[in-house]
Amino acid sequence: MKKVFIDGGSGTTGLRIKERLAQRKDIETVILPEETRKDENARLECIFASDAAILCLPDEAARRTVLLARDADTVMIDTSTAHRTDPGFVYGFAELAGRRRTIAEAKRVANPGCHACGFIALVAPLVENGIVPPDSKLCCFSLTGYSGGGKKMIEEYEAPERDGLLEAPRQYGLAQTHKHLPEMQKQCGLEAPPAFCPVVAPYYCGMEVTVPLFRGDINGTAEDIKQIYKEYYKTGTVHYDECGETFLSAREYAGYDDMSVTVCGNGERILLVSRFDNLGKGASGSAIQNLNICLGFDETAGLNLKRN
Predict the structure, then answer these.
(1) CA nearest 42: which of 193, 89, 50?
(2) pTM above 0.85, yes or no
(3) In Å, what is the CA distance from 95 to each residue of 15, 118, 235?
(4) By CB atoms within 10 Å of each CB, which of 58, 125, 159, 275 scores lowest?
(5) Between β-strands 238-240 and 259-265, what pairing exists: parallel, antiparallel or unpaired?
(6) Would the CA dihedral through 234, 301, 287, 206 be positive or negative?
(7) What is the CATH architecture assignment of 2-112+282-295?
(8) Residues of the chain with pLDDT > 70: what percent?
């Protein structure tokens, strides 16, 4: 049995991870009592005594923890933004070409951001296969449930007398400095980050990321993209689905840990769409998938999959 320490398990990501791991017979979950969860020495002792540690901490706390535990042989999976472009960490999106092997060999893994993994799943295979040139100027529209904003935002949306403005979707990241942009650019091999339009809406969880393309700007067709996705996503928790619906709901994968990629539009204007749970494949689901790979378990053990 493997010992796994969840450092900072009281937030939305940590709680979902605990729920998933609590059902496992092959893992002993190490959780500090509330009175010692901020005790740095106690936390470090748990890290050194565990086979793996999942960090569910703010960026600065994650950086400090990784620094203090630098000599630990423990696998450390950081769910914060802190190490996603750090060369000392493997970016934990297992479905990228060759990434599963590097994750399996890694001791330091950076868990992807929620918006970021939806964009990367759509764009990275197309850059890799020459469909989208690296110098492309892309746009990305991403719709998310309010749980992605953490405890404070959840409290705002679930307050008995919430602000009336919360009844409608709200666009944010208006300065184009969203914290997910560096990983979106780097993991896709793009020369510039996309123009990114995240929107939070009044529902708890579920995410829908859309990347529009013009046929004249790419080296291929919508059919070429479909074939690439079908081949690229044969294994793992990302799968290709035909766009056979009039409406695509962002809540389709709420509560699940896998992701759907779809190609819509027509011959000239193409829409690439990924749908998943911002707390699933966009956070805790990816963390557990990376944990499984690092510790040698079946990749999907403990995950709740909509499509097996």
Answers:
(1) 50
(2) yes
(3) 25, 12, 7
(4) 159
(5) parallel
(6) positive
(7) 3-Layer(aba) Sandwich (3.40)
(8) 100
The CATH-assigned architecture of domain 114-278 is 2-Layer Sandwich (3.30)
Q: Among candidates 49, 86, 84, which has minimal Cα distance to 69?
A: 49
In tens, the pLDDT along 106-155 reads 999 999 999 999 999 999 999 999 999 999 999 999 999 999 998 899 99
Domain ranges of the chain: 2-112+282-295, 114-278
Give phi and psi for 100, each to the nearest 5: -60, -40
Which positions are catalytic? 114
Q: Under a CB-based contact definition with an 8 Å cutoff, are residues 172 and 198 in contact?
A: yes
> What is the dihedral sign for C-alpha 196, 117, 22, 73?
negative
DSSP-assigned letter for residue 111? P
pLDDT computed for residue 245 by the predictor: 77
Q: Tokens for 247?
A: 């409406």
pLDDT in tens, 274-303: 999 999 999 999 999 999 999 999 999 999
Is the separation of the CB atoms in 37 and 43 below 8 Å?
A: yes
